[in-house]
């Protein structure tokens, strides 16, 4: 059994919170940073623009440390949808081109492509999950549909943590002329990232799930080409290189350098920035490389206990280390839900699946208890 980091988290006693895929559990350090920022907000004149510029750069650098370490590549945006809309509006598309997504993919990585396809005459293709998971189905789609110009994917499928092999998929994209866009909202902070190998055009992640920060602050990584040539979907002064608040009418104010040209309005919020800084600091203190194995210990304990209870077939195949899906027959879902509520176990229940997404505030013994609760309610 691995040590729990429960004391670092502000999860209320009596609750087994297993919904990190919706919202990461709150760290005490993040809560304290938020409280301090709110306290400081009574005297805004004490917070100069140099200070919030510095806070933005600290958060940018910490977020880059979860990607490829290069702060020049990272912009701060309010949501995954915002970052993905930037990707969709910049990558060239014309009539007859195909954009491929996963069937049932999270809407923030679907709606912007629907819109862009409608504008350009490109076609949107939903890849169906194959019998052996997503990777084979994606590779087959690339083989069968040479018109695919954009492939926009997660690393772990949001319903059940099913993993995609981004090494294999990105290699195939690079053989053809396919732009890869990644929504890592369900993996950044929990799974390793290899951008040098994957060579995506854009990468997005929310900050409030596995990155353990506040809602309303997400991260957009842009490949070097887009740092030099990309255009945002809004024109906000934060993204422009000006120190004296003079914006001439007859000349465009130059962009700030790197991916800062995509920095969005609203990110100059001391509350969210200070909470994000505390969260990212904790991730780096743990060591990002250690998290897949530590989080994986939790889901392995769940899988093993479900297997012991004879429920092996209920566990999603090939799931990521950090979260999984447990299939529940429709007629037992209400009973399972009632048992989970009674035991204070919180997880997402959707489409016949329990999405079980622990973090380091729970340990293997908690996960065994969760499996026993599910198994007892399934048996009735
Ligand atoms: C895969 C994935 N992408 C994105 C999001 C959130 O996107 P947005 O910030 O646009 O609400 C979620 C969950 O909320 C998600 O599961």
Automatic annotation (TrEMBL):
Any single GO molecular-function term of the entry would be: transaminase activity
Q: Which PANTHER family match?
A: BLR3095 PROTEIN, CYSTEINE DESULFURASE
SUPFAM superfamilies given in the database record: PLP-dependent transferases
Which residue intervals define the domain Aminotransferase class V in the entry? 16-227
Name of the featured protein? Aminotransferase class V-fold PLP-dependent enzyme
Name the species this protein comes from: Novilysobacter selenitireducens
UniProtKB keywords: Aminotransferase, Pyridoxal phosphate, Transferase
Q: Does the keyword Amino-acid biosynthesis apply?
A: no
Q: Which Pfam families match?
A: Aminotran_5
Q: Which InterPro entries match?
A: Aminotrans_V_dom, PyrdxlP-dep_Trfase, PyrdxlP-dep_Trfase_major, PyrdxlP-dep_Trfase_small
Origin: domain of life: Bacteria
